[in-house]
Amino acid sequence: MKAFFKVVAVAVFSMVVFAAPGFAADTVKVANAGALSGDLAPYGISALRGVEMAVEDINAKGGILGKKVELLAGDDVCKPEVAVNVATKLVSDGAQMVVGHVCSGATIAANKIYKDANIILISSSATNDDLTLSGEHPNFFRTISNDGAQADLMTDFAKNELKVKKVALIHDKGDYGKGQMELAKAEFDKMGGVDIVLFEGVTTGAMDYTAIVQKIKRSDAELVMWGGYHSDASKIIQMLKKKRVDTLFMGADGIYGDNLPNLAGKYAEGVYATGPNDTSSNPMHQALTKEHQKKYGEDPGTFFITGYTAMQSLATAAEKAGTVDYDAMRAAMFEITVDSPMGQIGFDEKGDIVGAGFSVYRVMDGKYQQVN
Amino acid sequence: MRWIKISLGLAVIGIIGFFTVRELLMDPMYFFELFLGGLTRGSIYALIALGYTMVYGIIQLINFAHGEIYMIGAMTALIVASVLGMWGWNTAVIAILAFVFAIVYSCAYGFTVEKIAYKPLRNAPRLSALISAIGMSLFLQNYVMLAQTPDYLPFKSLIPDFKFWEPFAHIITSVEITIIITTVIVMILLGLLIKFTRIGKAMRATAQDKVMAALLGINVNNVISATFVVGSATAAIGGVLIACHVGQINFYIGFLAGLKAFIAAVLGGIGSIPGAVLGSLVLGISESYFTGYFYSEYEDVFAFTILVIILIFRPSGILGKHDTQKV
Amino acid sequence: MAIKNQIKQSLIIAFWFMILTFPIMVIKVNTIQNTIDFRWANLLWVGIVTFFASMVWNYFLRRNEAQKKKEIDDDIPLIHRLLQNDRFRRPFLGVVAAFFLAYPFVFPMYHTSIMISALVYVMLGLGLNIVVGLAGLLDLGYVAFYAVGAYAYALLNLHFGLSFWVVLPMSALLGTLFGVMLGYPVLRLRGDYLAIVTLGFGEIIRIVLENWDTFSNGPRGIADIPPPTFFGHYFDQHDTMIYIYFIVTGLVLMTIFFVNRLENSKIGRAWIALRDDEIACQAMGIDKFKTKLTAFALGATWAAMGGVVFAAKTSYINPMSFTIWESITILCVVVIGGMGSAIGVIAGALVLILLPEYLRAVSEYRMLVFGALQVIVMVFKPDGLIKSVRKVYTFNVQEKAIHEQTHT
Lengths: 372, 327, 408
What we know:
Chain A is an alpha/beta fold.
């Protein structure tokens, strides 16, 4: 019996020790949450690297308000229920502000926790309209524009610049891709003059997309509009080209970045995508890209720059407010202008980014080049 | 019960027949293209499904890690091909070496996985071996992700676009035709192996009765290893071919492909090799038609519905042996 | 001599692994910049690690073999032996009860939160245990019923404003209904055919939820699902967590009670008989089909209730939460815990759900370690962590003798 109690006592004790957050007041705790494993891991990891690099830079300059920044990382696998657990853990661990989450669904679920704990949440990749426009997430900010703005741009460009009459809308059935295509559909319906000949979802990660490509071919669409991420897009683009289907291809920021041209190679030539305004000429952006290549031996991922900017914005707001308390921080967030690798940015009263809209790009010679 | 089944069956066949004829008359080219697309997909399913069905036939284990073997095959081919490519070797040599390495390494992984995760569980409850297989699958996925990259990697096709094929490329690409031909060749070779070689005979004997086979002097452990090796080899071929077809891979491709192939194996009657091939083709082609004529959103729902319908009519799959239980 | 041989064997194995992992561990190509990175240090590590790992592995494997030979049939797990001992049982249960009562007040909210997840899995595990462990039907689509429960609460609340306490019993009924509906056409199938068809049903339900926007809001999911009320009164975030914790604990207790009772009832014995030998079971006059269907439906009931709790706790659900991996995790809970054993399933759920949470310390290697542990547990404890014990009636010779004497 005695031995048993000993075991229990030790177990309880060790759990307490395990659980007890280190209340060392000489650091500012910032958390990063997103998918670090699973099939969406590339997006989460790219954002995390951006945040990590920003933290290093901030610490090199003396930290926030004279305190070093300590980064906590949480992996939510892009699942809402895991995101809630991760959020509670980060809050328990004493996170004072959070960068994340990567997927919109996970962000919506997790923000309930952050909102109640009075913590600022800033995402580098969650583009769902509801997050800012519904007004239910007052503590939420983002360094990426929302889906609605993109859908407007895409549909407008397709109708007025590309002058297409028939479009096929294909999505990956995810909250991001399908939402994007529904917005586009609504916009096309409102504008009129453009026929939607196909509106379909495909299974993400499926082995091949030959059948849907045949279907696109038969529908005679002049433009395929894609809602989803780059990996599935790359497969569809390659199959379209290999099957000699003569159609244009356009996507949203899910296929913008170096990922798609790298992945699809020569097949990516001529693909259109909307993406955050091009800032690769920005010296800070270039320096960061170099740094990333040096550190990881590869080009930065999709949300590296937005992740960096998110962290930077938090630091700027804290410096401006002179404290990391929620109310002061939140007020400061609306006032700051950040000299970021994305250029000068700020936040509007809903929490959306200002100064970083979307442009349309086209792949030429293996790189996205701005066209509008 | 019987007349319900019969009338239901007739109704299904009638509806399918009606639509087939109608669509065939309306747009024969489209019909044919979808068929070829389905055939390609079915061929890949078949290459993977073989491994499932052979392993199942011998040790009644759903080898959950089989999809990962397929992924490792493709990954090895990518690594070998890019290294040799950078060293400036001849493309034909690269293609051959990449295939060889992929097959050899997949076989080695299949062999090792069996020794670690399944052999100690030979006499354990069957579900324990299944969980061990699931654990192995998770392990291999994460191993490749951590050692390589979580990102998608471009896979430059090892099979060139044949010049002479150009006039037909809009119907079926050279890679697709290569996939179909390779699958046929692999099937024939496998058939010969099973039918005529010593090890093939030993495999069949072991599948029928393990104890009896052992009594006849067959080293059952070696036969099981050989089964894993052969299954892994066909999976590796499938992995490399599909990577050439879609032009990219990552650490996660094994899971979905494995799942589909497993469904195909069950559809055909798990444990039966011709069944696996037939099931794969049925699944691939019907999926292709469903997407082509109905909604691709519900493609997987349709695949499972076919499975349920076929299993209701033939509870052991299309070609599965309906063995009566004996006491 | 033996040791020398072992070292030789381990060296060969280490060498084998060095060759095996060479392309993936050592070479890293960057096809975009055309650079190759040879990471030779990894090769060395693989060699060293596999050398020692194979030594340990073989040692334990041999010890296991040796034990198996010695083993007599009554190797009842320690915990069962202790629980059968009255002097031990009371204080033990007291300690457990005290621990679970104090838990949410002692530990921070995060721990309460993951404990709720773990307890939901205990419920799911116990439910699936009826299907897999007791009745021997391999069900890979268990998550479908979980989804039914979660969506039942989310949708009924959204459209009709029904509260948690109203939906909980309703969802239990709904779960049973779905269990019967899905089970009816397929229960004739045997073994792995059943497994794959149930897997199919699980996926079908998920895909329908994903595509049928007007019904389920599609992939966007349903947000702002209210937490349970306490006589019409809502708590704040922190207290809600504690409240849900106690609700789940209550539900788990109820589940344990029911399952225990079921196990020793007529129907429970029929399940076990069915699992062990279908033909003998039929010959004894048990209606095979009805028995299977009951198991399936009852299993579904618990899953649906688990789903309601899940929705109330997460406050946001979308179809992503109900993938096949979820079914697999629940199955792992049952098998790793110990099939057919309630205590095993509880232990399995606590280990399997809490472990990855604590492994967050090694976050990147989390799933790698998790997969490896699954293999290791199965290889060394194929019956699960705590294996089930069958009730054994011992025939007492002395008593019989006395009995006979008094009669003569």
